[in-house]
Amino acid sequence: MRRLSVILGLVLAGCNAATVTDVDAVVDVAADAAIADAAVDAAGDVSPAGWQVKLSVSSGVSLLYSQGIARLPGGWAFSAKAGLWRTDEQFNQLVEKINPLPQTLLDQGYGHIGDIDMADGKLYAGLEQGDFSTGKQAVAWFDPQTLAFLGSHDLAQHENPCLCIDEATLIAYTPDRYHGTEIRRYDVKNGWAPLPSLTLSRQLDAMQGVDVANGALWFSCDDAVHGLYRADLATGETRQIGTIGRLTAIGTILPEVEGIDASPTANGFLHTLTNEPLQATSWVDDWLVSGP
Ligand SMILES: [Ca+2]
After folding, report:
1. How many CB atoms lie within 10 A of CB 251?
2. What's the pTM value of the predicted model, to 2 decimals?
3. Beta-carbon-side half-sphere exposure of residue 34 (alpha carbons within 13 Å)
4. Which domains does the chain have, with CATH numbers?
5. By CB neighbour count within 10 A (0-12 exposed, 13-18 middle, 19+ buried), where does 49 fall?
6. What spacing in Å lies between the alpha carbon of 71 and ligand 1's midpoint?
7. Are 258 and 115 in contact (CB under 8 A)?
8. d(Cα 223, Cα 61) in Å, to the nearest integer?
9. N or C end of the chain: which has fewer CB within 10 A?
């Protein structure tokens, strides 16, 4: 989350929203999505290849879950700038870890945990320090059960808003810039050795979440249309496949799109996290995805 940190700072620690399926919210999202679809159509940017994304279930979760989401065996993990949580399948909180990073990393300015991902039995998180001119960011990994810090590695890139790892190849993917086309790749099992970047066929803005599955990267972006995007791993072809919606502002404050997870569950294939401080909740939206 890059916006609203002041507002979030006012939220009482320990806030736990009940897990619900909010029918009204589903209707709101559908209405918002229709508006966004019109905007997308006007831009001529919808995939002609027939990708379709449909909202399945919306669940209210703790407002503190404000950065990332990852599927774990039997439940979910969530992140905030300075927090990690583990929940069960129904988003009942099981473990909370506030300030999970060691002082040595905090001393280097790593005050921002981004989107997270589970791979090879570990929970990985992109770390970011605020001086993007240094070309130095980092990744940390944690025990997915206890959320205890296990290790970290420096990454030679400008920003690091989100990160994912292909479970099959243990190749990591992370945007070099929050707005951009270059996706850095690393060989995790070879000490995070850099690999040639993947270049997206179009720029994505406000990349808040990325996951890798089924031969593609899947992005959640806090851009003007709250877009969901698919980028082909082989070619870099990047298309908008839908919108998360939630585009109704309260005053001037829009809900903020956060991380994404791509894992098949009973409720869908994509799972996005959206933070809505003025409604005192975050949302996990499950999406059914169909394609050619
Ligand atoms: Ca994720």
Report:
1. 6
2. 0.85
3. 5
4. 5-242 (2.110.10)
5. exposed
6. 8
7. yes
8. 22
9. C
Cα-to-centroid distance, 249 and ligand 1 (Å): 25
Per-residue pLDDT tens for 24-67? 333 333 334 433 443 344 344 444 468 899 999 999 999 999 99
Question: Do residues 128 and 114 touch, judged by C-beta distance below 8 A?
Answer: yes
Instruction: Label each residue of the chain as H, E or C.
Output: CCCCHHHHHCCCCCCCCCCCECHHHHHHHHHHHHHHHHHHHHHCCECCCCCEEEEEEEEEECCCCCCEEEEECCEEEEEECCEEEEEECCCCEEEEEECCCCHHHHHCCCCEEEEEEEECCEEEEEEECCCHHHCCEEEEEECCCCCCEEEEEEECCCCCCCCEECCCCCEEEEECCCCEEEEEEEEHHHCCEEEEEEEEEEEECCEEEEEEECCEEEEEECCCCCEEEEEECCCCCEEEEEECCCCCCECCECCEEEEEEEEEECCEEEEEEEEEHHHCEEEEEEEEEECC
Residue 41 has phi, psi (to 5 degrees) of: -60, -40
Angle at 153 between CA 147 and CA 157, to 5 degrees: 120
Q: How far apart are CA 66 and CA 40, in angstroms?
A: 26
Ligand 1: centre distance to CA 116 (Å): 4
> Ligand 1 center to residue 140 CA distance, Å?
14
Q: How far is the CA of 211 from the centre of ligand 1 (A)?
A: 6
Question: How many other CB atoms are there within 10 angstroms of residue 22's CB atom?
Answer: 15
Is residue 229 within 8 A of residue 205, CB to CB? The reply is no
Contact 278, 54 (CB under 8 A): no
**Residues 119/125, Cβ–Cβ less than 8 Å:** no
